[in-house]
Write a structure and sequence with these properties.
By secondary structure, this protein is of the alpha+beta class. The protein is built from 5 helices and 13 strands. The longest helix is centred in the middle third of the chain and has 28 residues.
């Protein structure tokens, strides 16, 4: 070592921003809508922890560092019920709480403008509408409308269209003309489809996990949204709806028609409106 000169440790090469973006895109497989620093806590008894945060689809991904290629935590906010008003702090930061079906998440941004932006984007992708907030800037509203169209496209083209293709695989080996509202999807996916596209109908026929029988999933708008599931048993050439009094019908279409007529049309078969979906992004 030369006198008077300290040898510096060799610097660790940092990944290029483009490579980080590509790696995150590969891992998450979701479009990026908003990113920036947020402080997070799940309870008021906890300390806030700062993360580099990305909103992709209806998922929040939390990274320990802005340059970390992989996330340390993620949270699905699609079950958002509401969000509180922005609450400024004495130090200039601002916070708000996401009210989720399985708990709460408190988020804190550097200032009120940043907090309003995060809240607005989260509401846009979870409620599929731009919030009517007059305090949002014109450029923020423009970006939210762009994100809204992308998210609608993602849901209708990627999710619902792929589910529509699965109609060719009914759980029974018997060739049957399937009702238009049959989708070979899980219970959770059926719930998401009904919640995200209420104008397309509120009744889905789907296979049960045993791949031999069926289920009806409905979403009713009464005083509050209500989800219900009914078993439909395939027995010989008949289908049995398991209600208080079993209903036996000759076809799956008759099963669907039974729910529609018994509710005087309040239940409508969920049918994907293909004309409403735009072409996928190139």
């Amino acid at each position: 070592m030369l006198s008077g000169i300290r040898e510096q440790p060799e610097a660790t090469p940092q990944p290029a921003p483009r490579r980080i973006f590509q790696e995150r895109q590969r891992i998450t497989r979701l479009p990026l809508y908003l990113q920036g620093y947020l402080s997070v806590r799940h309870s008021r008894w906890q300390e806030f922890r700062a993360y580099w945060t990305e909103l992709r689809g209806t998922m929040l991904f939390f990274y320990d560092d802005k340059k970390a290629p992989t996330y340390s935590q993620k949270l699905d906010v699609s079950a958002l019920t509401s969000a509180t008003d922005i609450c400024p702090d004495e130090n200039g930061s601002a916070r708000f709480i996401l009210m989720l079906s399985n708990g709460e998440l408190e988020l804190k941004a550097n200032d009120c403008e940043c907090a309003k932006e995060w809240k607005g984007f989260i509401l846009t992708v979870t409620k599929l509408s731009v919030p009517p907030d007059e305090s949002l800037l014109p450029e923020q509203l423009t970006r939210m409308h762009e994100v809204l169209e992308k998210e609608k496209k993602r849901i209708s083209v990627n999710d619902c269209s792929s589910a529509s293709l699965n109609r060719k695989s009914p759980p029974s080996s018997t060739l049957t003309t399937m009702p238009a509202c049959f989708y070979a999807v899980s219970r959770q996916k059926a719930i998401e489809m009904l919640e995200q596209n209420p104008s397309w109908g509120n009744l889905i026929l789907r296979p049960r996990s045993d791949s031999k029988n069926y289920a009806i999933t409905i979403r009713h708008e009464l005083d509050a949204p209500s989800l219900k599931h009914y078993r439909v048993i395939s027995e010989g050439k008949s289908y049995i709806i398991e209600l208080e009094r079993r209903v036996i019908l000759p076809s799956l279409q008759d099963v669907v028609n039974y729910f529609v007529t018994q509710t005087r049309g309040n239940l409508k078969p969920f049918v994907i409106q293909t004309g409403a979906a735009e072409d996928p992004e190139s």
